[in-house]
Amino acid sequence: MDFTRDSSRRAFLKRSAALGVAGVATPFVTSLAAIGEAAAATATDYKAMVCIFLYGGNDYANTVAAYDQASYAAYLAARSNIALTRESLAATVLNPTAGLPGGRQYALAPTMGSLLPLFDQGKLAVTLNVGTLVQPTTKAQFQQNAVKLPPKLFSHNDQQSYFQASNPEGATSGWGGRIGDLFQSGNGASTLTCINASGNAVYLTGKSAVQYAIGTGGPIALSGGTTLYGSSTAAATLRSLMTGGSAHLLGNEHARVSKRALDTYAQVSGALASAPASGFTLFPTGNQLADQLKMVARLISVSSQLGAKRQVFFVSIGGFDLHDNLVAVQPGLIGKVADAMRAFYDTTVALGVADKVTSFTASDFGRTLQSNDDGSDHGWGSHHLVMGGAVRGRRFYGIAPQVGNGTPDDVGQGRLLPTIAVDQYAATLASWFGVGNGDLTTVLPNMGNYNASNWNLGFV
C-alpha cells in the first residue's frame, strides 16, 4: 500500500508542516496533529505505547548474550576480542518460566542488571531475532534473491525508516503515526496523540496525525511565551498578527494552526504544572534517555487533564554505530538504556498505570556477530526488549538463532536473517493498543504477506 497522499490542499499543508517539524521542535509546527480526517477508533480506558529507539544499530550479541556452553563457545570464537566473559554474565542470566529448546540460555549484559528483576517478575520479555522484512524469507530465498527484500539493507537511514515506517528513507508516515490516525479523534486534544520527546521521527507521523515535539523541560514557548523583548504588549500583538484572519488561503491556515499551537502550549504547560515533582525522583541524572522518559511519565501522569485516552510516544538515544571501541562504549550506552527503562517502569507503578503502559526497544538493525577490528559491522536481525505491567514476561518470544558464522540464520559475517518481522512485532503491540485486525493492514502494509495466525506474537 502506498501511503503517499494526493497532492491536495490538506496534504500540501500537512507535508509543509512536517518539513518544519524536522528543523524546529516547537508547538508551532508540531501541533498539526488535528489536521486530517477523523479517526476510526475510540477508547474508554487509557493506554500508552513508548518506542525506545537505539540509533546506530545496537550490537545484539553483547546486549542479550549467548550463555549456554555450546552457544557461548561459538560466540567467543566469532568475536574473541570483543566478547563479554562468561563469568561476567553469570549474575545476569535470564531464567524464563519455560526453557528454550536445546538448553539454550541467554544473559543480559552486565551493565543491564537493573532490568533483571523486571524479567524475573514477569514484566519484561525478550523478542529474539527481530528485523525488517517484506515477507517471510528463508536463507535460500535470500541467497537466490527469490523474494522481495527491504531496500538498501544495512543502510542506517533506510533501515531506520523501514523499521519505523515499512518504507525506506523518504517515507511520509510511520506505523506509530498510523496508529495515532485511528485514535486521535477519541482524545480530548488530538494534537497530543503522538508525542516525541527526542526531536523528530517518521515513526510518529501519520496520514493525518503529526507528532507533537516536547523538550525534556516541557513544551517550548513560542517567541518567549507571555513576553516579547520584555513586553507583554508586544507578545500580545504578535499573537494577534499570527492568529488573525487573512484574505489568503495559506494565511488563514497559518493563523488557525498558530492559534492551536499557542493554545496547546498553554494546555500542556498548565497540566504539567499540576504534576507533583516528588513523583519523578526515581530517574537517574546525567542520562539523556532517562530525561526523555521522565517527561513521558509526567505527561502520562496528567493524561486525564489532557483528555487523552491513547498516546504513542517516541524517545531515543544514539551512539550505537560502533565499528570500533565497542567494548569501551557500548556497555555504558546500554547501561543507560537499562537504568532509564527501570526508572520509567517503577514510576509507572508508583503512578498506578504500569499495566496501561508498554515500552519496547527498536534500532536500525543488529550488528555482525563477527568482530570488525574492535567493533562490529552493520547487521540485520536483533534481539529486543518489551516492558510493562501488561507484558507476558519472563519469556523469550521467537526462535533462538544458532550462534556462529555460516549457520542457517547467518547471511554473512554473523548477520542474522530475521525470523520475526518488524510488522509482527508492531502488530502485537498495536493489537494490545486496541487496533483491530481489520485495521492492521492499513497500519502495517506488509501484514497481508503473513499468515494471520502469526500476526500476534502474544508477548502483550
TrEMBL record:
A Pfam family that the UniProt record links to this protein: DUF1501
Keywords from the named record: Signal
Top-level taxon: Bacteria
Keyword flag Cytoplasm: no
InterPro entries: DUF1501, TAT_signal
PROSITE patterns, A to Z: TAT
Signal in keyword set: yes
Signal peptide per UniProt: 1-33
Protein name: Tat pathway signal protein
Lineage of source species: Bacteria, Pseudomonadati, Pseudomonadota, Alphaproteobacteria, Sphingomonadales
